[in-house]
Structures are given as structure tokens and as C-alpha cells.
Amino acid sequence: MSQTATMTGTAPASSKSLEDGPRGERPKPFFTPKKIIIYTTLVFFSLYFLFPLYVMLVTSFKTMPEIRFGNIFALPNQINFDAWHRAWTSACTGLTCNGLSPGFWNSVKITIPSTIVSIFIAAVNGYALVNWRFRGSEIFFSILIFGSFIPYQVMLYPLVMITRELGIFGTLPGIIVIHTIFGMPILTLLFRNYFASLPQELFKAARVDGAGFWRIFFEIMLPMSLPIFVVALILQITGIWNDFLFGVVFAGTQNLPMTVQLNNIVNSAQGTPEYNVNMAATVLTGLVPLIIYFVSGKLFVRGVAAGAVKG
Amino acid sequence: MADVATQPGQGAETSTRPGFVQRLFLHNITAKVAALPMIATVLVIFVGCTAWTIYYSFTNSRLLPRNDFVGFDQYVRLFGTNRWNISITNLLMYGSMSLVLTLTLGFLLAVLMDQKIRFESAFRTIMLYPFALSFIVTGLVWQWIMNPTLGLQGTMRNLGWTGFTFDWISNPRMVLFALLIAGLWQGVGFCMVLMLAGLRGVDEEIWKAARVDGIPTWRTYISVVLPMMRGVLVTSVVIIGSGIVRLYDLVVALTNGGPGISSEVPAKYVYDYMFGGGNIGQGLAASTMMLVTVMIIMVPWAYLEFGGKGRR
Question: Which of A35, A274, B39, B230 gives 20 to 30 Å between its CA and that of B306?
């Protein structure tokens, strides 16, 4: 657009949308009708996307009398952290009134090991699939990718039986195994594509020098795969943190993750609902993925697009 | 043989000329052991558990699975249950609306973002951040916004617009649209990112050629660029589609199936019968139907991706 303004003399050749507007120098090419439509639409949609965040934050800082006044747009009279404090320490989940903090720590306890284990196993998978192909390895990989589209509900009950049989149903190791299993397709794809993009000469040279499977993996492949590790990390931390279904089924009542406790606080608490506490709890639960999202920026985009846009 | 290229160091093993079975297991043994978690996941979970579920969906299992075959009885009962029929109708309605709108809005926004605009990364950040949030958070925020007395409706009425109605969440006829608003809020940004990647992948030469031929921009997008983005489009449909079939958390958080059973979905039916109702056979039959639904979405995609290899 910007260069078309300087080329008005040769308009017919360039003309993307120059039919409108006067000829000659335009001091402000920014305000063409087309630009106005584009920016108006984008701003309109941005408001739709931002509105809930605004409402969440504003509500969480209000007092209940302010909320009952009934203006969801209004800013709080004063910044009030009461609701945040209550949400963290004393909000009721139907049975107990310890707030969200146990859920937060449960989520931490679930997310950290699940992330590490699932990424490590997927990295080994991807490495084996690219550099150590064996009979049937591609078939296993294809089924793995297809498997990621099977609704979780289909495998839920047999998995409950298996984990119960292994004695890990309703325990931390149980939920870690489950997250490792269901993170495997996308992560394996990610690492496979990444390792396939590395120069094969490196691998061959190490092979000639007599290095084995694990040595090449730890000393050559791992140090080179930092970028994809970061992408996998982002993907897994947000994914596991946001999980609800597996947490509610497999984690057991002692380890319920934050999402489950949040839902209990808001949807199964007795008495008059405290919307400020609810919203503070909701913000708190969304905080970890949000921080990761804003810090990681473009890497997050790469992460979410990784499965879709094949490398 | 798939493993020609990669084993310069396996000479000692191959020189002994082991039999087929030994070769199958011992060749590349470390890699196979290392890949055991993957092999086990594929065989036990994705194949085994799925087969188990289909198998036992033909039994009369109630509190515990048992080998009492009843043919298609569970399915007959399933489709004779009002709640299930409402669930699949909802899924069909919500799914088609959500799929069409997510793709349309995603594409539209991607096109707008592709006009060499300023603040592109700011707009992208704003549109994609909901995707980082869980469905639970999404559902609860919108539940509050749609609260009839203190949410958007109450606010508008207090501000003087007394006829303003936005009671979708408590209105059985409109509740699917409430779900839709929340679902789109969460997912459109992701679709936009995919589409934008697709648009950026289109060769600049195509645009020049279209400009020389005097084809209007919108026409180029619809007739030239869109068909060229077939890969991204199909992938988006598959990802969004299989996400829709799984729809569960959002419903639990936003409406919990209500008002009444007007926003029930199949995934919730499965969960409630398996873990709440003590009627495993029903849950298994319902989840098998979910699998069938995904297959219907997947088969055309698999055909395009793997059947038509000549096109790549």
C-alpha cells in the first residue's frame, strides 16, 4: 500500500485499490477507506477478545456490594485484593474451604514431571524414528498420529482398568503416565520433524566414530535441539496445566489439579455466589498459561501451529 | 527394507546371518528398546484400548465390564434415550456452526492481518491469547458475562436499555449460541494463525500474476489463494473437527448441560454413564459412536493426505 501512493503516475499498472482518492502526493495514505475498514474490523474483534479479560480483572478487584450494583463494565472504586486472597486461601470447593492454593500446587506437581517425562520420551521416539529406523517404525508412527484423533473418551475406561491394575490409579504417577501417553503423538511428530531437518552427516560421522544410540542422543542430538525443546515445553506446560478430563478421572481426590478445583469452587459451592472470588480464582488459574504465552511470544505460535503445519 | 540407510556399524550382526525372527527383534535392539514406550502406547492404548471399548460396547456391562453379549442392544437403547439424541443433535448443530464460523472468521481475520497492517503482532497477541487458556477458564468467564442479572444483560438494563436481552445461557433455545460465543472466543485466534501461515505460504508471483490480469483482490483470495491453501484448510478442519467432537470441559464449566439437558453433549454423556451412572455398557457404546464420528471426519482427510500421494 505505501508504495502505491508514490506511483500515482503509473496507476493502471500498480492499482491495488487506488481508484478512490485524489491523485498526487498524499500526506496521509494511512486513512484510505480500505484501511479504515480493515482496522475497524480488527479493533472490533480485538474488543471481543479482550472483553472477557477486562471483565475478569475488573470483577476480581470489586467488592460484592459493588458487583450487586450491576455494572459489569465499571472500574472498581478501589483496587481491592480481598477476593484474590479469599480465592487463594479460603474459597470453598463444596467440601473443603482451603481455596485454590492446594489445586495450584497439585497442578505444579502434575505439570512438572509430566512435562519432563513426556518430552524426554517423545525426543527419544523422534530420534529413533529418524536415525534408527526399524521394521515397522513408520507404521507405529502413523498409528500414533492417527491415535491422537481418537476421542479420549474411547480409551478412558480401559485406561482406568489398566492403571488400577498397575496400582497407579488416582496417584501422581498415574496422571503422569496418562499425560505422557496423550502428549506423545504431537511431541513425537514435533521431534521427528526437527531431527529430520538436521544434517544427517552429523549422525553418520558420530556413527563412524563408534558412538552408540544413547551417546549420539545425549551428546549430539540433545544439545542441538534446544529450540524445539522450548516449543515442546510451552506446548506441554500449557496443555497439561489446562487439562480437566484426565485430572478429574486419574489424579485422585488428593491430587485434583487447579482447573478441577476452580470448577468446583465456581459451580458446586453452596450459598450465595461470590463473583469477585470466582473471577479472582479464574484469573489465578489462567495466570500460568497466560504468563507463558506472553513471555514466549512467537514460540507459542510455533508450538500451536507445529502439529498443523507439517515441517 | 526401511532401514537401509542408517546402520554402518551393524556389520558384525548382519555377518552372522541371523534368521528372520532374530533380525526382527535383535536388529537395532537399542532403538527398539528405546522406542518401547511408543510401541506400547500404540499397541496397548491406541489399538488395544480402542478395540476393548468397541468389543465391550456389545456387552451388558453395568458396574463392571463383563462378557455378556447382547449384540446391538446398547446402541438401540442409546438411540432410544432422549438425552443422547439431544446430545448428538447439539453436537451436530454446535459443530457445524462452530466449524463454519471458526474457519470463516479465521480466514477473514488472517486476510485482514495479511494486508501489511501496522501492529500486526499486537493484534495477533490479542486474538491468540484465549487459546492459551483452558476451556474451564473460558467457560467460567463467559458464564459470568452472560449472568442474566449482574452480567451484560443486567448492566445494559441498568444503563437504561431496558429491552436488552442476552439470556442465552438460561434459555434452552439459545444455549448453544452461548456455547458458540465462548468456543469461538477460544478457538478463532488459533484458526487465524493457521490460515495466516497458509496465506504467507502463497507465492508472491501468484499475486503479481493476478494483479496483471486485473483480477480484484477479493476474487483472487476466493478463486486462487483459497484453493491453493487446500492443505492448511483440510488440516484445520480435521483439528477443529476432532476438537469439537471432544467438546466437554467447556460445557461442564459454562452450563453443565443445562438448562435441564438442553446443552448436553456426547462426551459428557459418556463420562456421566461411565463414572457417574454405573452403566459402563452405555458409556462404551456412546464413546464408540464418538469414534465413528471422528472416523467420518478423518477418512476423507486420510484419503487426501495418504491416498493421493501423487499430488505432492
Answer: B39
